[in-house]
Amino acid sequence: MKNVYKYCLIALLPLLTVACGQREVTDDMPDSIKLQLLDINIERDPDNAELLAARARVLFNLQRLQEAGFDISQALKSDPKNLEYLLLKSDIAFAGGNIEDSYRTLTEAEGIDPSNQDVLLKLGELTFYSRDYDRSLKYLSQVTERDPNSRTALFMKGFIYKEKGDTANAVQFFRRVCDKFPDYSPAFEQLGVLYASVNNPMAVEYLTTALNLDPSNTNSMYALALYYQERQELEPAETLYHQILDLNPNSADAWHNLGYIELFSYRDYARAIEYFTHAVEANSQYIEAYVNRGCAYELSGNAAMARADFENALAINNTYQPALEGLKRIK
């Protein structure tokens, strides 16, 4: 009976394969299933640009970039002015680190349709990531002229102005995003960071809102903790640093700042050393943590360990002044 059952399964396999080959690929399928079906369909129709582009998208999602690039190039041979295909080709090139090819593909798409919002937004993003801020603003402004409520374009413009040191314009654009998209945590975070940089209490409101929207956002948590620390409101700062460590035990900055508080505010050198040790374990190149741990050792009377830490810092940067000064003090 077992042999008959096994034979039936074997006999059914070709039928199942044919049936699968006839199934339509749908968005709710796992990528692995999509890929199997697309392979079957493309084997039957190898020049079908739509199928090749669909498989390129799946391969891109699976981070199989070389194969994805080949498929989308084949699709573009059949349909060279298809903007969707060109955008995908650009994304694949960008993901593979080929920025020049990504930009060249986007400019080709722009030449086909100079007013296409998706193309302009991608050009704005690409030049933004390349730190070509003036060109990025040009593209993003074209987007916002046609769509004043483009969240991505408005947010990126705010970020560019922040990077350029134009705080007034940065605040203006981030506020527009917050007003139009009150559930978008990154805009509230950026406003909080900007207000914190000028010691404005509005930082607390914006960073707290960002955390309410995304309680696991350790960037907002850290910015708020640092704001409290710099105002010597140590209890809420410490609470937030510990919350960060609950989410990410390897946060070198959180460990370092807790050590800094113990060293300079509470004068608890043993605990400071413990926290700084966690910081350098999380980041072996954390030069400030070595120097501050060296200070903690120095103040606790352990000159040998202090010297070792100042030398550790100088091994990272042999001109680092705080480490050089530390060595002078203990020699």
Which terms would index this structure?
Serine Threonine Protein Phosphatase 5, Tetratricopeptide repeat; 331 residues; 19 helices; mainly alpha
Listing every helix as H and every strand as E from the N terminus to the C terminus, the arrangement reads HHHHHHHHHHHHHHHHHHH
Portion of residues within helices: over 70%
Indicate the low-confidence ranges by residue numbers: 1-22
Architecture of one domain, CATH level 2? Alpha Horseshoe
Could you tell me the CATH topology label of one domain: Serine Threonine Protein Phosphatase 5, Tetratricopeptide repeat
Biggest beta-sheet profile? none
* Overall radius of gyration: 28 Å
- Oligomer kind: single chain
Residue share in β-strands: under 5%
Total of DSSP H or I helical runs spanning 4+ residues: 19
Tell me the name of the CATH class of one domain.
Mainly Alpha
Can you say what the CATH homologous superfamily of one domain is? Tetratricopeptide repeat domain
Q: How many β-strand stretches? A: 0
Structural class: mainly alpha
Briefly summarize what is shown.
The protein has 331 residues and is mostly helical.
Question: Can you give a write-up of this model?
Answer:
The chain has 331 residues and is an all-alpha fold. Among the domains are: 1-108, Serine Threonine Protein Phosphatase 5, Tetratricopeptide repeat (Alpha Horseshoe); 115-177, Tetratricopeptide repeat domain (Serine Threonine Protein Phosphatase 5, Tetratricopeptide repeat). Helices cover 79% and strands 0% of the residues. It is built from 19 helices and no strands. It has helices at 2-21, 31-44, 49-61, 65-78, 83-95, 99-112, 117-129, 133-146, 151-163, 167-180, 185-197, 202-213, 218-230, 234-247, 252-266, 269-282, 287-299, 303-316, 321-330. The longest helix has 20 residues, at 2-21. It is elongated, with a radius of gyration of 28 Å. Residues 1-22 have low confidence and may be disordered.
